[in-house]
Amino acid sequence: MANHYKQISSLIYDFTKPPGTSIDGDLEFYKSQLLPIQGKVLEAGVGNGRLFIPLLKYKVDIVGIDKSQEMINICQKNLEKENLTGNLICQDLEEYREFEAYDYIIVPNATFNLLETRIKATKVLKNFYDSLKPQGTIIIDLILPIEFKAGSNHQYSHYIDDQTIVVKNLSKEINWIEQYSINQIDYYINEQLQESQEFKLSWYGCEEFCNILANIGFNDGVFIINYGNKRNLNVKTITFIFKKV
Hints:
This protein is of the alpha/beta class. It contains six helices and eleven strands.
């Protein structure tokens, strides 16, 4: 199974989470981390530019990468709407490495959870390590399956481009041993199935992920729960901030 945002799923994402949308406070968090610094930033999983475009507006020297050409195309259109230019790369993170090019690499929200296997995740982290300058920083958000209930169904309707798109989302499976969950998502237009895909999310324990990072060579790390929002008592997002040393 390969996670990939296709045409309709990319369109829905852009419609529901346009550039400038903050999810659980992540935009404010990344602004607080990146605005005070000087240096080059890579956003892994740039998507439609939800964070990329606001950060560009604040003059962050940022490059965006995503393996979905559909998402890259939408991000480019969103840049043009704002009269902005940005450096976008369409490539799988497993294949991308630019030796000592970046001061920061950020992987916001659930992007890293979309890496389907731990083998692939480890390779991507090694690529990140090589792509960071000495003393460079990696910031990775991991989400936890606190709301996942196997067998539950959700249905949404969106009116986009003069047509109604119905999204049916089935929480298909959760494997607590191998630490992943699978959602089946179907997209209907005029009651006809137009696009179907499965998304597999891989889950990590906090200590487990710290050890993975340390084994690759990252050190001097901290983790932050829910972007520092102490009013949210449920632990949904853990952000790992580690350095290449």
